[in-house]
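In this section we walk through a basic example: taking a raw amino acid sequence and producing a predicted 3D structure, encoded as C-alpha coordinates. The instruction is simple. Fold the sequence below.
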Amino acid sequence: MVTTLHHASSHATGAKDGAAQAEYRKLPAVDALLQEPAILLLASQYGQAQITDRLRDLLTQTRQAIAAGQRAPERTQWAELLATELAATTQPSLRAVINATGVLIHTNLGRAPLSRAACEAVAQIAGGYNNLEYNLIAGERGSRYDHARALLCELTGAEDATGSGFFSVPFAGAASSSDSPAK
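The resulting C-alpha coordinate sequence is shown next.
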Protein backbone atom coordinates (compact mmCIF):
# COMPACT_ATOMS: atom_id res chain seq x y z
CA MET A 1 0.00 0.00 0.00
CA VAL A 2 2.80 2.42 0.85
CA THR A 3 4.52 1.58 -2.42
CA THR A 4 1.33 2.39 -4.31
CA LEU A 5 0.98 5.78 -2.59
CA HIS A 6 4.61 6.55 -3.26
CA HIS A 7 4.20 5.53 -6.87
CA ALA A 8 1.04 7.64 -7.24
CA SER A 9 2.84 10.60 -5.71
CA SER A 10 5.78 10.17 -8.10
CA HIS A 11 3.37 9.85 -10.99
CA ALA A 12 1.57 13.07 -9.98
CA THR A 13 4.88 14.92 -9.66
CA GLY A 14 6.03 13.51 -13.00
CA ALA A 15 2.78 14.57 -14.67
CA LYS A 16 3.12 18.04 -13.16
CA ASP A 17 6.73 18.28 -14.38
CA GLY A 18 5.67 17.00 -17.78
CA ALA A 19 2.92 19.62 -18.01
CA ALA A 20 5.37 22.37 -17.03
CA GLN A 21 7.88 21.10 -19.60
CA ALA A 22 5.17 21.22 -22.25
CA GLU A 23 4.43 24.83 -21.29
CA TYR A 24 8.14 25.74 -21.40
CA ARG A 25 8.36 24.25 -24.91
CA LYS A 26 5.60 26.65 -26.03
CA LEU A 27 7.83 29.65 -25.29
CA PRO A 28 9.02 31.25 -28.53
CA ALA A 29 12.55 32.47 -29.13
CA VAL A 30 13.12 36.23 -28.95
CA ASP A 31 14.37 36.24 -32.54
CA ALA A 32 11.19 34.51 -33.71
CA LEU A 33 9.01 37.02 -31.87
CA LEU A 34 10.95 39.91 -33.39
CA GLN A 35 9.81 38.73 -36.84
CA GLU A 36 6.08 38.93 -35.97
CA PRO A 37 4.38 41.75 -37.96
CA ALA A 38 2.66 43.25 -34.90
CA ILE A 39 5.94 43.23 -32.97
CA LEU A 40 7.80 44.76 -35.94
CA LEU A 41 5.25 47.59 -35.82
CA LEU A 42 5.90 48.08 -32.10
CA ALA A 43 9.66 48.11 -32.82
CA SER A 44 9.14 50.96 -35.30
CA GLN A 45 7.47 52.95 -32.53
CA TYR A 46 9.62 52.07 -29.51
CA GLY A 47 12.94 50.98 -31.03
CA GLN A 48 14.46 47.53 -31.47
CA ALA A 49 16.54 47.59 -28.28
CA GLN A 50 13.57 48.39 -26.04
CA ILE A 51 11.41 45.75 -27.74
CA THR A 52 14.13 43.12 -27.30
CA ASP A 53 14.62 44.00 -23.63
CA ARG A 54 10.86 43.94 -22.89
CA LEU A 55 10.45 40.59 -24.70
CA ARG A 56 13.24 39.10 -22.60
CA ASP A 57 11.57 40.47 -19.46
CA LEU A 58 8.22 38.98 -20.52
CA LEU A 59 9.81 35.60 -21.21
CA THR A 60 11.47 35.65 -17.77
CA GLN A 61 8.14 36.52 -16.12
CA THR A 62 6.43 33.77 -18.10
CA ARG A 63 9.01 31.18 -17.04
CA GLN A 64 8.37 32.16 -13.42
CA ALA A 65 4.62 31.88 -13.97
CA ILE A 66 5.04 28.41 -15.50
CA ALA A 67 7.14 27.36 -12.51
CA ALA A 68 4.24 28.50 -10.32
CA GLY A 69 1.84 26.28 -12.29
CA GLN A 70 0.44 28.71 -14.85
CA ARG A 71 0.18 28.18 -18.59
CA ALA A 72 2.28 29.84 -21.25
CA PRO A 73 0.58 32.44 -23.46
CA GLU A 74 -0.46 31.40 -26.93
CA ARG A 75 1.83 32.53 -29.75
CA THR A 76 -0.80 35.04 -30.92
CA GLN A 77 -0.88 36.73 -27.48
CA TRP A 78 2.75 37.90 -27.33
CA ALA A 79 2.27 41.12 -29.32
CA GLU A 80 -0.63 42.16 -27.07
CA LEU A 81 1.33 41.29 -23.92
CA LEU A 82 4.28 43.31 -25.24
CA ALA A 83 2.09 46.31 -26.10
CA THR A 84 0.61 46.25 -22.58
CA GLU A 85 4.08 46.02 -21.02
CA LEU A 86 5.36 48.90 -23.16
CA ALA A 87 2.37 51.10 -22.30
CA ALA A 88 3.02 50.50 -18.60
CA THR A 89 6.81 50.97 -18.69
CA THR A 90 6.97 53.98 -21.02
CA GLN A 91 4.33 56.05 -19.24
CA PRO A 92 5.71 59.52 -18.44
CA SER A 93 6.19 60.10 -14.73
CA LEU A 94 4.67 63.60 -14.93
CA ARG A 95 0.91 63.52 -15.42
CA ALA A 96 -1.88 66.06 -15.45
CA VAL A 97 -3.80 66.20 -12.17
CA ILE A 98 -6.72 68.18 -10.84
CA ASN A 99 -5.83 70.67 -8.11
CA ALA A 100 -8.65 70.31 -5.60
CA THR A 101 -6.54 71.56 -2.68
CA GLY A 102 -7.84 75.11 -2.66
CA VAL A 103 -4.27 76.41 -3.02
CA LEU A 104 -3.89 78.16 -6.38
CA ILE A 105 -0.10 78.21 -6.61
CA HIS A 106 0.74 74.80 -5.17
CA THR A 107 4.42 73.86 -4.91
CA ASN A 108 3.75 70.11 -5.17
CA LEU A 109 1.49 70.47 -8.20
CA GLY A 110 3.80 72.41 -10.49
CA ARG A 111 2.95 75.81 -9.06
CA ALA A 112 0.72 77.81 -11.46
CA PRO A 113 -0.33 76.51 -14.87
CA LEU A 114 0.81 78.45 -17.94
CA SER A 115 -1.80 80.29 -19.97
CA ARG A 116 -2.87 78.83 -23.30
CA ALA A 117 -0.96 81.62 -25.10
CA ALA A 118 2.21 80.85 -23.13
CA CYS A 119 1.89 77.12 -23.90
CA GLU A 120 1.42 77.87 -27.60
CA ALA A 121 4.45 80.18 -27.61
CA VAL A 122 6.60 77.51 -25.93
CA ALA A 123 5.38 74.83 -28.35
CA GLN A 124 6.07 77.06 -31.35
CA ILE A 125 9.67 77.76 -30.31
CA ALA A 126 10.50 74.39 -28.73
CA GLY A 127 9.18 72.49 -31.76
CA GLY A 128 12.24 73.42 -33.85
CA TYR A 129 15.55 75.21 -33.84
CA ASN A 130 15.68 78.66 -32.28
CA ASN A 131 18.12 81.46 -31.49
CA LEU A 132 18.44 80.73 -27.76
CA GLU A 133 22.13 81.64 -27.68
CA TYR A 134 22.49 83.32 -31.07
CA ASN A 135 22.22 87.04 -31.73
CA LEU A 136 20.47 87.37 -35.09
CA ILE A 137 21.32 91.07 -35.45
CA ALA A 138 25.07 90.66 -34.78
CA GLY A 139 25.21 87.29 -36.55
CA GLU A 140 27.19 85.70 -33.72
CA ARG A 141 26.84 83.83 -30.46
CA GLY A 142 24.64 85.62 -27.97
CA SER A 143 23.40 85.12 -24.44
CA ARG A 144 20.31 83.17 -23.45
CA TYR A 145 19.59 85.91 -20.92
CA ASP A 146 19.18 88.56 -23.63
CA HIS A 147 15.69 87.27 -24.39
CA ALA A 148 14.35 87.97 -20.90
CA ARG A 149 16.60 90.79 -19.68
CA ALA A 150 14.45 93.77 -20.77
CA LEU A 151 11.23 92.06 -19.69
CA LEU A 152 12.62 91.22 -16.25
CA CYS A 153 13.90 94.77 -15.76
CA GLU A 154 10.53 96.21 -16.75
CA LEU A 155 8.62 93.76 -14.57
CA THR A 156 10.79 94.14 -11.48
CA GLY A 157 12.15 97.64 -11.80
CA ALA A 158 15.68 96.25 -11.71
CA GLU A 159 18.54 98.13 -13.31
CA ASP A 160 19.80 94.97 -14.96
CA ALA A 161 18.99 91.28 -15.17
CA THR A 162 22.09 89.36 -16.13
CA GLY A 163 23.67 85.92 -15.82
CA SER A 164 24.44 84.43 -12.45
CA GLY A 165 23.60 87.60 -10.52
CA PHE A 166 20.18 87.37 -12.20
CA PHE A 167 19.09 90.88 -11.27
CA SER A 168 19.41 93.29 -8.44
CA VAL A 169 16.31 95.01 -7.24
CA PRO A 170 15.68 96.93 -4.07
CA PHE A 171 13.04 95.02 -2.14
CA ALA A 172 10.74 96.56 0.41
CA GLY A 173 11.99 95.69 3.85
CA ALA A 174 15.58 95.30 2.65
CA ALA A 175 18.23 97.49 4.22
CA SER A 176 18.12 100.78 2.41
CA SER A 177 20.54 103.60 2.10
CA SER A 178 19.89 107.22 1.43
CA ASP A 179 21.45 107.02 -2.03
CA SER A 180 19.28 104.09 -3.18
CA PRO A 181 17.10 105.22 -6.06
CA ALA A 182 13.43 105.43 -5.24
CA LYS A 183 11.33 103.03 -7.27
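Looking at the output, two observations stand out. The chain has seven helices and four strands. The beta strands are 134-135, 140-141, 161-162, 166-167. In the next section we compare this with other chains.
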